Amino acid sequence: MKILLLGKNGQVGWELQRALAPLGELTALDRQGYEGFCGDLADLDGLRNTIRQLKPDVLINAAAYTAVDKAESEAEQAHTINALAAGLLAEETEALDAWLVHYSTDYVFNGSGEKPWSEIDATAPLSVYGTTKLQGEQLIQASHCKHLIFRTSWVFGARGNNFAKTMLRLAKERDSLNVINDQIGSPTGAELLADVTAHALRVAVQRPEVSGLYHLVAKGTVSWFDYARLVLDFAEKSGVALKVPADAVTPILTSQFPTPAQRPLNSRMNANKLESTFDLSLPSWQSGLLRMLNEITL
Ligand SMILES: NC(=O)c1ccc[n+]([C@@H]2O[C@H](COP(=O)([O-])OP(=O)(O)OC[C@H]3O[C@@H](n4cnc5c(N)ncnc54)[C@H](OP(=O)(O)O)[C@@H]3O)[C@@H](O)[C@H]2O)c1
After folding, report:
1. Residue 84 lies in a domain
2. pTM over 0.70
3. Residue 257 maps to a domain
4. pLDDT digits (tens, 9 = 90+) for 251-282
């Protein structure tokens, strides 16, 4: 099986390089490309030529415009990378009769209520990032290529930047730390995303009828505030000197911390469809997080 991975150095892309390696012949690209192959999602012609040259059986897109607040002022660039490039990947995948794997986000929802969102719930993104990610999903679905779209949330990984690492840094540097307590979601490890992707792909190549959209998040939910406290508690117990210990973090409301992009309050997601289709039992968010905290230099 020939696999082309885009976005190889992002949190998820990095873990995919490991998880996909045993599945076949892997070509992994980042934005800079390699040996004349284009991996830049903003260069649609270059991307098209590269796919036509490589003719992969599976195309995995782990690249995205992920700067949620910056996207509010760079809407066109976010649209090209998250929507138009996804549409192009779908067109080319369809022409090759290949598989496309793509990742999307809880930010396609407006965050109302407290019920976990399922795949059939109405979308209503609040931000440019969420809107462009939804457009990407829709272009893939409209193309009728064989696809797996995984909507996930609150991604963390040992490599790359994420909330857990930011909290660790701020708790060492600052005298106080305010963290939002009314946004609820599921922190999900890049390792888990990569391992589930590899498993689902093995199933999909045997059973093309599983093509579709799936919610893929770790089990359990938490607020950013309680998530931060768990991270700092772990750091303290590991002997890290913090200026703001876990019990000194202050909970605040989203309304007290205005940002350019609006974020959903309810990011709970129901992953039952994924678990039943691929015969999986997703682990708790804490297990993946503790694993990552044990791996990184605190
Ligand atoms: N992070 C989250 O909390 C989260 C939540 C829900 C869904 N997701 C989705 O999960 C997927 C993976 O996210 P992640 O957490 O791994 O993101 P990430 O760590 O921010 O990685 C994104 C990667 O995309 C690359 N990229 C950006 N613009 C590009 C371009 N024009 N051409 C090629 N590559 C480009 C970045 O490269 P550079 O380093 O060169 O910019 C980076 O390596 C994305 O689809 C994202 O929307 C993420």
Report:
1. yes
2. yes
3. no
4. 999 999 999 999 999 999 999 999 999 999 99
Closest CA to 249 of 166, 180, 162: 180
Average pLDDT along the chain, 298 residues, taken 10 residues at a time: 97 97 96 95 97 98 98 98 98 98 98 97 98 98 97 95 94 96 98 98 97 98 97 95 96 96 98 98 97 90
Residue from 5, 31, 183 to probe ligand 1 pocket by mutation (most atoms less than 8 Å from CB): 31
Six-digit token pair at 61? 């897109």
The residue to which tokens 């691929």 are assigned: 278
Protein residue whose Cα sits closest to atom 48 of ligand 1? 155
Domain that holds residue 137: 2-162+187-219+268-283
Query: What average pLDDT does the structure give for the chain?
Result: 97
* 107 classed as catalytic: no
Residues near ligand 1 (Cβ within 6 A): 7, 9-13, 31, 39-42, 62-66, 81, 103, 105, 133, 152-155, 160
Residue 248 lies inside a defined structural domain of this protein: no
Domain count, the chain: 1
- Please state, in angstroms and as integers, the Cα–Cα distance from residue 141 to each residue in 25, 49, 89, following that order: 26, 22, 12
The answer to whether the CB of 128 falls within 8 A of the CB of 261 is yes
Q: Which of 65, 107, 129, 214 is catalytic?
A: 129
Q: Which two tokens stand for residue 248?
A: 């000194």
Looking up residue 68, the CATH number of its domain turns out to be: 3.40.50.720
